[in-house]
Specification:
Low-confidence stretches: 101-107
Distance between the termini: 25 Å
Strand order of the largest sheet: 1-8-5-6-7
Mean pLDDT: 85
Radius of gyration: 21 Å
Number of domains: 2
Largest sheet: 5 strands, antiparallel
Shape: globular
Strand content: 15-25%
Number of strands: 8
Order of helices and strands: HHHHHHEEEEEEEE
Oligomer: single chain
Length: about 260
């Protein structure tokens, strides 16, 4: 599907409004106290704990990029301030977002399932925009039908700013979509005859993606975690988890 640049910018504005309302409804801020989220401390399911960690990471990243999105929105409104319909459209967007979020969020309490559902809705919008613009393959707007016709310096500056935001959205989309990838199977790590670590499905080299099962000493819970495998000076480890023993480590492989 080929879309216009104006259509893409309106999607950015809708997503920005959704993020702002998400923060308002959840009370999210920079030093958010996740212990206040209902039933989170009692959760023991390793798959759910992995998903919730992805949600936490996504919320932090959205909080970092939301000011840039807001700046882009202000630029856009200043550029097209004569378009009276923008005000009416914003009111409609706000009504739709309030209605959608109010259906799944309670006034005084929030669960991780609520946050997960809201992020799922947001991620669906991001996925559609990435697919429609072919951004993940090109990392630019060349696939958008009227991009080549844009010559106004202000519009080009706005698109440059949106490019940075879109790169962040692509990262968030990858993380939130990870758990949706089908699990092919489980295995254990071992060294092969060539000295490399492998499992039933894959041979691991530096920067290979790995999903592993471990005991989180801080939370005192077993969890699944995805990260990067590293080789350095004949020593192998998992990024940020150097103490995890690789031999016999339970691992999982996805599509």
């Amino acid at each position: 599907m080929i879309v216009s640049m104006r259509r893409i910018i309106e999607r950015f504005r809708l997503i920005n409004m959704f993020i702002k309302h998400l923060f308002e409804k959840t009370g999210f801020h920079e030093d958010y106290d996740w212990s206040a989220v209902e039933n989170l401390e009692n959760e023991e399911n390793p798959d759910k704990l992995m998903r919730y960690e992805h949600c936490k990471w996504a919320m932090d990243e959205l909080y970092k990029i939301q000011p840039a999105l807001e700046d882009c929105n202000i630029m856009y409104l200043l550029m097209f301030s004569n378009d009276i319909s923008l005000k009416d459209r914003d009111m409609l967007m706000k009504y739709q977002i309030d209605r959608n979020i109010s259906q799944i969020v309670r006034v005084t309490k929030i669960t991780m399932q609520d946050i997960d559902r809201m992020l799922g809705t947001l991620n669906h919008s991001i996925s559609e925009m990435i697919e429609d613009t072919n951004f993940e393959d090109r990392c630019d707007w060349s696939y958008v039908e009227d991009f080549a016709d844009i010559s106004d310096k202000r519009e080009l500056e706005l698109l440059d700013r949106y490019t940075d935001v879109m790169c962040k959205f692509a990262d968030i989309n990858d993380v939130l979509s990870y758990c949706e990838r089908r699990i092919i199977g489980e295995s254990v790590l071992k060294r092969n005859a060539q000295g490399f670590y492998e499992d039933e499905f894959h041979e691991y080299h530096s920067r290979s993606e790995i999903e592993f099962y471990y005991f989180d000493e801080q939370d005192k819970k077993y969890k699944w975690k995805n990260n990067l495998f590293f080789e350095r000076n004949d020593k192998c480890s998992i990024w940020d988890y150097p103490d995890v023993q690789l031999d016999g480590l339970r691992v999982r492989y996805r599509e």
